[in-house]
């Protein structure tokens, strides 16, 4: 489904809410520790026979929205004091180091990955693999790497909002910063 037009577009007209709920239920059952081999097989079978790739993309977006990492992205739980500046310190340090070294080809693997907690680095690598696969088929699916970074950046990198009543302009600024950061990281990985 990588070449399906609008694959990551939310609420695509052909996406089936019933199939999405079934995929989500099977996914949750498959990852519940200890993962039962039958639950995992049921999810993989259902995934293999899903007719609409928009449903699979919806499950991916749902997973990112409901992901619970230890601490905000890039920040070890012990280092988080809850301020927005601290939760972006990992990215600011990476961007400064990369700029100071004149954007070396291996900045992603030498400057960014060692600075991230292991779980966060693994998640980032998996997300960038998906983003790369989708962007490689951008002519067919209408999803450029830049657009995908903006779609996936907020659920992946954005620190949790301090209150549920965040003003629109503050939310938009967080969404844009996360998307631009993921786009920069994506380009740094491509240079590797």
Could you characterize the architecture of this molecule?
The chain is mostly helical and 192 residues long. Helix content is 64%, strand content 0%. The chain has ten helices and no strands. The chain has helices at residues 17-31, 37-49, 53-65, 84-87, 89-100, 107-112, 118-136, 138-141, 145-157, 168-191. The two termini are 27 Å apart.
Helix/strand layout:
Blueprint: H1 17-31, H2 37-49, H3 53-65, H4 84-87, H5 89-100, H6 107-112, H7 118-136, H8 138-141, H9 145-157, H10 168-191
Helix pairs in contact: 1-2, 1-3, 7-9, 9-10
Q: How much is the radius of gyration in Å?
A: 18 Å
Count the E strands: 0
Give the CA-based shape: globular
Give me the secondary-structure category: mainly alpha
- The total of helices stands at 10
Determine the N-to-C terminus distance: 27 Å
Major β-sheet annotation? none
Chain-averaged pLDDT: 77
Properties at a glance:
globular; 64% helix; 0% strand; 192 residues; mainly alpha
Short description:
With 192 residues, the protein is mostly helical. The chain is built from ten helices and no strands. It is globular, with a radius of gyration of 18 Å.
């Amino acid at each position: 489904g990588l070449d399906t037009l609008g694959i990551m577009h939310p609420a695509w007209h052909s996406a089936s809410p019933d199939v999405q709920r079934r995929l989500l239920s099977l996914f949750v059952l498959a990852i519940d520790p200890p993962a039962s081999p039958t639950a995992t097989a049921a999810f993989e079978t259902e995934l293999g026979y899903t007719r609409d790739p928009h449903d699979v993309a919806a499950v991916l977006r749902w997973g990112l929205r409901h992901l619970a990492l230890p601490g905000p992205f890039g920040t070890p739980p012990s280092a988080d004091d809850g301020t927005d500046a601290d939760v972006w310190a990992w990215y600011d340090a990476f961007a400064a180091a990369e700029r100071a070294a004149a954007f070396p080809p291996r900045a992603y693997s030498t400057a960014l990955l060692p600075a991230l907690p292991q779980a966060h680095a693994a998640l980032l690598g998996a997300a960038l693999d998906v983003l790369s696969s989708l962007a490689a088929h951008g002519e067919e699916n209408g999803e450029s790497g830049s657009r995908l970074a903006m779609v996936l950046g907020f659920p992946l990198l954005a620190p949790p909002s301090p209150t549920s009543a965040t003003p629109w302009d503050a939310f938009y600024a967080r969404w844009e910063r996360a998307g631009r950061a993921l786009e920069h990281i994506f380009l740094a990985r491509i240079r590797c």
